Amino acid sequence: MRFDATGKVEFDQIYTQPDPRAYFSSLRGLEYQIPQLAKPHFTALIEDYRAARGIDIPTVLDIGSSYGINAALLRCDLTMDDLYDRYCGIGERDRAELLTSDQELVRERGKAIPARFVGLDISEPALSYATEAGFLDDGVRADLERSDPTPGQLRQLADIDLVISTGSLGYVGASTLSRVVAASGAPWMAHFVLRMFPFDEIEASLGALGYETVRLDEVFRQRRFISPEEQSRVLDTLSGVGVDPSGLETDGWFYAQLYLSKRPIHTTPR
Ligand SMILES: C[S@@+](CC[C@H](N)C(=O)[O-])C[C@H]1O[C@@H](n2cnc3c(N)ncnc32)[C@H](O)[C@@H]1O
Question: Quick check: pTM over 0.90?
Answer without folding.
Answer: yes
